[in-house]
Structure formats: structure tokens, C-alpha cells
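=== RUN LOG ===
request id: a7f3
mode: sequence -> structure
chains: 1
length: 324
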Amino acid sequence: MDRRGRSSGMIPLLAAHAFYEYYRLPRKPPVTAGLLAANTLIYLRPGALDALLPSLDEVWFNARLILKYKDLRRFFLSPFYHVGEPHLVYNMLSLLWKGVQLESQMGSAEFASMVATLLAMSQGITLLMAKSLYVLFHYEKAYFAEYSVGFSGVLFAMKVVLNAYSEDMAHVYGLLVPARYAAWAELILIQMFVPGVSFIGHLGGILAGILYLRLMGFYSGSDPLALILRRICGIVRWPFRFIRGLFGRRRQPGTWRRSPSGSGESTRWRCQACAYDNHGLLSICEMCGTSRGMRSPPRRQASGQSEDLSLEELRRRRIERFGR
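=== RESULT ===
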């Protein structure tokens, strides 16, 4: 529904498209889904959320107001607000496409950490550029006093990260350009043909993506924010794992294991020594000769010498022989 209360029907189409894309994915990216839901709910403001959420006028990104009043609410919340259904739907479709790819490649914790970092960096760079243009060139009305909202800056940063090392070509509004330069092409074309967009906000997103890649190239350790997010997710999931452990049936290693076909002849057991899946009628591992339930293979005699096969050697032989 737009700001006057009328619905143009674009949000139901967005929801249907997002549901279809998630249904066909083998792994459902939760962070991308959460971002889509958060942006959409903030725009729709259903029920009690309407009273809890700040109004659009309270969160416009405006460099002058942020610096004058140290208004962090405008700094951090403005990316999640949109001025109309076309603005929201276009950004969310872009987020769905980029988010699914990046979260599938990186993992949910790393992706969430990256989005939070890109949001703060894109907003900070945009604020710095607006202030610099005002101080150096007295561009107050054009950039320093400009009002803007939307997730576009973060999306431009994500586009830079997604295509940073791509050798493919990409279509940008009918133009075929190298994928690594697609964000720059989109920045120029949008500025030329779409009125009312924030050039400095989009540019800040591109520069944030480039800076993020440079920083990650210099830093080889674990992402501390991702580690914190993993711990939080582990704490949240622990009660569910505990309940599932109480009421669910747990299979012990080395016991009978039924293949996906579900037939009685295909029942298998996994060797505890080499991890090879054996036929259920066998009592000795075909790969290493270990009896079912034993944790180490038997000692073999060859040419008067004994040979102990390590687990790594057994796994290597299994891969060479069976390709798994």
C-alpha cells in the first residue's frame, strides 16, 4: 500500500516470487529471508508495528541533521525505509537475487556480518562525502541537505562483492558489460534515466563494497562479528536441539543404516574405522576388513611384515576405488 493507503498489488507479486524462489532452493537462506521480511514489514507497518516504528520523516538520511544532532537513528534505520511500492519491490527483488547467491556461498553468519558491515560503511562513506563536498565546494542543497532512504546503497555494495572476481558479462538495462563493472554502469544509467535517486548514496555503496573487499584481502583471520552471530544462533537453537534429542531417535555409529530407496536389501551399516557404507548382510567391512562395531581395522600380515593402515590411508583408498 502506498503512503496514501492504496495498494498497487506489487507486494503480493513480490511475496509470490520470493516464495517460489525459496521453494525451489535446496537450502533456504534465513538471513536473506529476514531482510526481505524486515523491509516489507517496516513499509507496511501492520497492527502494533505502526505505533512502535518511527515515521518516515524521523528516519530520512540527511547529512546535516545527522551531524548536527548526532542522530544515529537516521544513520542506521534509513536503509530499511522506502517511499513507495515500486521502490520497495525493485530493491527487494535485487536483494533476493544477490542475497541468495552470497548467503549460499558464504554461509549465513558470514553473510549477516557482511551486510551489517556494508550498511555501516556505505552510510558512513555517504555521510563523509556529503560533508566533504559541503566544506570544499559549498554543495549544501545538492548533497549535504539531501533527504534519502532505501536499501539501494547496501545493494550496490553487495553487487560489487558478488561480481568482484567474475569473468562473465552482465546485462545492465540492455547493455552488455563486464560483470565486475556492472555496478558502475548501473550507477550511471540510473542517474541518467531515473529521476529523484540519490547519486551520492549509490556511489557510497559502491565505494563501501570496494573498501570491504580490500579490507578482507588484508585480514586473514576469522570474522569476529560472524563468530558472535554463530554463538548467538547456537544459543537460540540449543533448546530445540535438546528437545529433539529427548524425543527423537538417534542412530549410533556403526548400526544399521537404510539407504534412501527404503528397500530391505539396501539396508547398510557404516564402518567405524574407514567410514565405508557396507551391505547390511555383511559382518566385515569390504574396504578394510574391520568387523561391524569395531573401531580399528585388523592387523594384516604380508611377506613376514605387519602393516597397520591408518584412517587417512583407508579413506584415500576408498576414494581411489569407489570415488566417494
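=== NOTES ===
Confidence is low (pLDDT under 50) at residues 1-6, 251-266, 300-307.
The longest helix spans residues 108-137.
=== END ===
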